[in-house]
Design brief:
This protein is α+β, with helices and mostly antiparallel strands. Helix content is 20%, strand content 45%. It folds into three domains: 2-133, Tick-borne Encephalitis virus Glycoprotein, domain 1 (Sandwich); 140-250, Immunoglobulin-like (Sandwich); 254-362, Immunoglobulins (Immunoglobulin-like), CATH 2.60.40. The relative contact order is 0.08.
């Protein structure tokens, strides 16, 4: 037993010596106000994320002696751990220990003896007044992998922007599943086409690299979310999001708008048409605007095209008047703008197609007149029928002389047949 005690004391003296050296090298550290704690054997206290425990004391004597010492274990929420032995009057031991310029512990009292229920110590504890003294928590995925990424931050329209991710596995255990996901904002596409998801496995201390490229559909500034990394480590899923990035795409952005003064007119009436060409990009371009007449349209005034250098945020407009000589729902064709810039980037932009309703007023009037004529004819027919009935009544009163009885028999037969017909119907 004594041999084990002496061995432990020898080891702890060496540890304490290291703590003394650390303390001697920390004269420039500014410490916050200290707090005092009374720890009995086995007690633990949490001081600003540092868990300090009175793990053991020197063997008890019949009475308290000045050469008592206390053995401390310190664990931090940041994953650090230390041991320290403090004593007030033991050769080779100090009553103070400074841990990584972060934690300063001083033993004010150390009390042992057979005449007390349990040994205890009174400690003064202070932490450094420096944010650098508090380490950042290292995630499991960062402790397992090292990531290095590079990406383009500026390209011209038509060029590819490149991204690369270098991954290094820093542990001996293989990793079967690492998923990489890249999400692009609207206006950017993978080139060549991809779903933006890649899967890898790693051998011990293995390395992998990922490269892909994107193209812009139009110039502008794009904010790209950080690449997402998911790893399966010992049955637990871990994730990491890399840094976001900004991609600036230069070039002209030619937008064409075509508007009509009305969407419904009469045949042989006029419609005013306007075409506006706007450069929403950040580079000038030489543009050529051309337009075409709709079916049945005849230009009366104005111009339908033109060419010039269109600078960023500037607008080029033309107006003209067209007479519509064909009725129906007429399609207004798209206006076309071809452009090229000093970087020899070129393209074609179109306006949206629209419709105009051209009505024939004569067709509407003719239809109305026809209805009135039909109504008049109906009235006339009814009048004619009424007149014929009156005429029959008049004719039935005519005297036929000696042959009247034959006419009377004929009338009765006619009446019987008529009644029979009415009953059948």
């Amino acid at each position: 037993m004594k041999q084990q005690i002496f061995l432990f004391i020898g080891l702890t003296v060496l540890l304490s010596h290291l703590c003394i050296v650390a303390s001697a090298q920390s004269d420039d550290v500014e410490w916050l106000d200290a707090e005092e704690y009374t720890l009995y054997w086995g007690d633990e206290v949490n001081h600003s994320g540092y868990l300090i425990k009175a793990a053991d004391f020197s063997p008890a004597k019949p009475i308290d002696v000045e050469t008592d010492y206390v053995m401390l274990t310190i664990n931090s929420i940041y994953g650090d751990s230390w041991s320290a032995i403090l004593s007030n009057n033991t050769i080779g031991l100090s009553n103070n220990s400074v841990l990584d310029d972060r934690l300063n512990i001083t033993a004010i009292e150390i009390i042992t003896g057979n005449d007390i229920p349990a040994p205890y110590t009174v400690l003064s504890v202070a932490i450094s007044n420096s944010t650098e003294s508090i380490p950042k928590t290292v995630k499991k995925i960062d402790a397992t992998f090292e990531f290095d990424e590079q990406f383009s931050n500026e390209v011209y329209m038509g060029e590819r922007a490149y991204y690369s991710l270098y991954m290094k596995h820093m542990q001996p255990e293989p990793v079967d599943s690492v998923s990489i996901r890249a999400e692009l904002p609207d206006g950017l596409v993978f080139d060549p086409d991809s779903d933006g998801v890649w899967n890898y496995s790693f051998d011990s201390y293995g390395t992998k690299s990922l490269q892909y490229s994107v193209k812009a559909l139009r110039p502008g500034t794009y904010e790209i979310n950080g690449t997402l990394i998911d790893a399966e480590l010992n049955g637990t899923s871990y994730s990491k999001e890399m840094n976001s990035s900004t991609l600036v795409v230069h070039g002209p952005d030619i937008v064409v708008n075509k508007t009509l003064s009305t969407d419904s007119i009469n045949l042989n009436e006029n419609v005013n048409i306007s075409v506006d060409v706007v450069n929403e990009g950040d580079r000038a371009a030489y543009i050529t605007l051309s337009d075409q007449l709709p079916l049945g349209g005849k230009i009366l005034s104005g111009v339908m095209g033109g060419s010039l250098v269109l600078h960023p945020d500037k607008t080029f407009s033309v107006e003209y008047t067209v007479r519509m000589d064909k009725e129906g729902e007429i399609v207004i064709p798209s206006a076309t703008v071809k452009f090229i810039d000093s970087y020899e980037y070129s393209g074609t932009s179109y306006s949206k197609k629209t419709l105009v309703q051209v009505n024939d007023p004569d067709v509407v009037i003719a239809s109305s007149s026809g209805t009135e004529d039909i109504e008049d004819e109906t009235i006339i027919e009814e009048t004619v029928v009424s007149d014929n009935s009156s005429q029959d009544s008049v004719e039935s009163e005519v005297d036929h002389g000696k042959l009247q009885f034959l006419y009377d028999i004929l009338d009765k037969i006619t009446e019987v047949l008529k009644n029979t017909k009415d009953k059948i119907l």
